[in-house]
């Protein structure tokens, strides 16, 4: 099984915290909705089981800029070989028009971010709205390889 084939999603997934003083850092860009999209991540799971950090994902769709920002984490997992990690949490979402005006926003959307780190770093991001319906997905159900940048999984 390759790391990329591990990308699956289950709405009812309950991740156990992997309390190993592990963290994920990095960033880069992928193609999302036929446009350039950026990711920045820095999240750490302390040995006491708490996860802290931020994730910022920015993409453009239908002439609007969208920002997904997470800083509240509910699940964290890192594979023992540091090749694969999953973060789950809550995110704020903003839609901004061409003048820079926020035209829509929402809070507490559920996110799951899966990343691979290795020869080719990749990500899969799913965002569910407050009714648990799919709001946005980057990677279309599979890992989307970074076109630039690097994601590092540390333990």
Proportion of beta-strand residues = over 45%
Contiguous uncertain segments of 5+ residues:
1-14
Integer average pLDDT: 85
What would you call the shape?
A: globular
Number of strands: 10
Count helical runs: 0
- Could you give a short account of the major beta sheet? 10 strands, antiparallel
The percent of residues in helical segments reads: under 10%
Structural class: mainly beta
Give me the Rg, rounded.
Answer: 15 Å
Q: What is the succession of H and E elements?
A: EEEEEEEEEE
User: Distance between termini?
Assistant: 22 Å
Describe the structure.
Helix content is 0%, strand content 63%. The protein is globular, with a radius of gyration of 15 Å. It has strands at 22-32, 35-45, 51-61, 64-78, 84-96, 102-116, 122-128, 134-138, 144-145, 148-154. Strands 1, 2, 3, 4, 5, 6, 7, 8, 9 and 10 form a ten-stranded antiparallel β-sheet that branches. The chain is mainly β. It has no helices and ten strands.
Properties at a glance:
disordered N terminus, 155 residues, ten-stranded antiparallel β-sheet, mainly beta, 0% helix
In short:
With 155 residues, the protein is mainly beta. It has no helices and 10 strands. It has strands at 22-32, 35-45, 51-61, 64-78, 84-96, 102-116, 122-128, 134-138, 144-145, 148-154.
């Amino acid at each position: 099984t390759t790391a990329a084939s591990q990308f699956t999603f289950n709405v009812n997934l309950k991740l156990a915290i992997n309390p190993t003083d592990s963290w994920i850092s990095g960033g880069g860009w992928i193609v999302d909705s036929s446009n350039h999209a950026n990711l920045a991540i820095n999240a750490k799971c302390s040995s006491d089981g708490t996860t802290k950090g931020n994730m910022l994902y920015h993409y453009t769709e239908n002439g609007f800029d969208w920002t997904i920002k997470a800083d509240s984490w509910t699940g964290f997992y890192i594979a023992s070989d540091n090749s694969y990690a999953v973060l789950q949490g809550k995110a704020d979402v903003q839609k901004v028009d061409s003048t820079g005006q926020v035209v829509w926003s929402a809070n507490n959307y559920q996110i799951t971010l899966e990343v691979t780190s290795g020869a080719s770093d990749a990500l899969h991001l799913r965002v569910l709205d407050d009714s648990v319906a799919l709001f946005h997905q980057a990677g279309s159900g599979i890992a989307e390889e970074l076109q630039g940048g690097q994601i590092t999984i540390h333990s």
